[in-house]
Write a structure and sequence with these properties.
This protein has helices at about 15-30, 45-50, 70-75, 90-100, 115, 120-130, 145-155, 170-175, 185, 190-210, and strands at about 1-5, 35, 60, 80-85, 105-110, 135-140, 160. With about 210 residues, it is of the alpha/beta class. It has a seven-stranded parallel β-sheet, with helices on both faces. The longest helix has 22 residues, at about 190-210. It is globular and about 40 Å long. The relative contact order is 0.19. The model has no long low-confidence stretch (mean pLDDT about 90).
């Protein structure tokens, strides 16, 4: 079993959308996936409730931070291949526990100052948790312009590694959740789905390399 945590201290950075997008990519890859929803707003859980056809390879578990270790232990006992932990914004406790519990931490940020300003605080959380593997993911980037390039430079200056895939702002990421889907299901041949699949492949290679070591 391997665990990915999506961590950030800014609301609206797209953690849940990214977590669910990667979860569906993983199930399409034949993996059994558990998404742990630590957000009191239960956005991921509500998304799952809207799905018309449930996937036996995907489970969403809504829980409090204090129950995270128990949920992870149960998932491992039940043979889950991949755990994805979705954390709430502005919760250092949830972020810290998720960072301690993962093989890989992803830090989604939009290429704008409000998100970039939180990177230093997130860096501190990752350092306290002694998270070895973490990557910033540029998310909801404007299709035109160079904001994503400038955001990458700032993240690099703070000591982060960067995922090589940029997730751009596309309508599908807003449309798909209304019916409990992700871009890979709503528009399987669209650019949004392609970007998610590329990110998933990158993450899979990282986890496989770590597992082999």
């Amino acid at each position: 079993m391997q665990t990915i945590s999506l961590i950030g201290q800014k609301g609206g950075s797209g953690k849940t959308t990214l977590a669910l997008g990667l979860a569906i990519c993983a199930t399409q890859d034949g993996k059994t996936v558990v998404v742990v929803d630590l957000d009191p707003q239960t956005t991921a859980t509500n998304w799952y409730d809207r799905r018309e056809q449930l996937d036996e390879n995907l489970t969403i578990v809504s829980c409090q931070v204090s129950r995270l270790k128990n949920v992870l232990q149960t998932a491992q006992q039940q043979g889950a291949d991949l755990i994805i932990i979705d954390t709430p914004a502005k919760s250092s406790e949830a972020a810290l526990e998720a960072a301690r519990s993962c093989d890989l931490a992803l830090v989604p940020i939009r290429p704008q100052i409000y998100d970039l300003e939180t990177l230093q605080a997130v860096r501190g959380i990752l350092d306290i948790a002694k998270t070895i593997h973490s990557y910033v993911v540029i998310n909801s980037a404007p299709i035109q312009g160079k904001r994503h390039i400038e955001a990458k430079e700032i993240a690099l200056s703070l000591g982060y590694q960067l995922a090589p895939v940029v997730i751009y702002t596309r309508a599908v990421h807003g449309d798909a959740p209304t019916v409990g889907q992700t871009a890979s299901e709503f528009e399987p041949t669209g650019k949004g789905a392609e970007e998610l699949n590329q990110l998933y492949k990158f993450i899979s290679k990282l986890l496989n390399k770590k597992k082999s070591k």
